[in-house]
């Protein structure tokens, strides 16, 4: 079905519900949702690009027999009673990994889930965003115009709330249709393994050297200037957290990189740089220059290394010179995994993560038997269905390389 054939979905079937922003209203929702049965559609809206962190500013729920609820976690920040009441239900989310952390912050943690985006990936569907999936699978066109809005805005406009309600309006129907397709394709057991892995995943470890994600860092070629980037990044992060603003709204990455490249020797020189001339930046010139000065004074031994510490193999582009046997192994194994993925209509990265394959190719089991490769994959978090499809072929590729 094409978009031209789709029916526009413009408003929730039951009307736009009142927003739940106090405990009494939440108790009513809790009673309504816990007395119904079946899966629960769940979604969350954040204010990425506007606020510091990734907290939820709106949570949407829908359950057959319960209707839709729009919950303001600023007004009712502890949603653990609701999470407990729904603990035995299957939660239906789209791209669950994006929302699980902010839901956990307010006390909502699923014990089982169905991820419609991941289901679409396992089915090999070409477009797996919520809108395209609802369109291609159910024949409805969703309005997606407010996904990047500042959801910390209060009061939230009705137009935004209508959009948010529609995000869960058809999620259960989509889940049911995708489950049937997974069953018909012989992939439902794979999906169940993937969903269980999402539920049971440990919280992500804090990123090492998060400042190295500064856009444009590749332009910085010496350790002293890297120290400037690091100092400015942490100064910005501290102020952003204090003001509850997205760091990029406090100081753009381009300003950090330009300061590191220029290395201004006075506060006036820093203030004269184009990216620091704005009124907001002038108020904080002293803060930014103090960070630059601190980095300039650091002893050589305290400068950051040119490259980030990493416990894995080097980038594959360097393997041919550094360890040519590993390069041959990786190329052979990659070709086998791609072939298997194509045969099963899967994205390669959903069949086996590139990092898992690279690590195995760099330090292969000796001897590289199917069981040994399977265990190496298992230690890296591969699911059993992935191991069953790939271990024998990768072991054969390693042995022949």
Describe, in plain words, how this protein is organized in 3D.
- 51% of the residues lie in helices and 8% in strands.
- Helix 3 (96-105) links the parallel strand 6 and strand 7.
- Helix 5 (130-138) crosses helix 7, helix 9 packs antiparallel against helix 11 (253-262) and helix 19 crosses helix 20 (384-400).
- With 401 residues, it is of the alpha/beta class.
- The radius of gyration is 25 Å and the shape is flat.
- It has three domains: 3-200, Ribonuclease H-like superfamily/Ribonuclease H (Nucleotidyltransferase, domain 5, 2-Layer Sandwich), CATH 3.30.420; 210-302, Orthogonal Bundle (DNA polymerase, domain 1); 316-400, DNA polymerase, domain 1 (Orthogonal Bundle), CATH 1.10.150.80.
- The strands form two sheets. The chain has a six-stranded mixed beta sheet, with helices on both faces. Strands 1-8 form a two-stranded parallel ribbon.
- The chain has helices spanning 23-34, 80-85, 96-105, 116-122, 130-138, 158-169, 171-184, 188-200, 223-243, 247-250, 253-262, 267-272, 279-283, 285-297, 319-322, 324-343, 348-351, 354-362, 370-379, 384-400; strands spanning 7-9, 19-20, 40-46, 56-63, 67-71, 91-93, 113-115, 140-142.
- InterPro entries: 3'-5'_exonuclease_dom, Exo_C, HRDC-like_sf, HRDC_dom, HRDC_dom_sf, RNase_D-like, RNaseH-like_sf, RNaseH_sf.
- It comes from Haloactinopolyspora alba.
- GO terms for molecular function: 3'-5' exonuclease activity; nucleic acid binding; nucleotide binding.
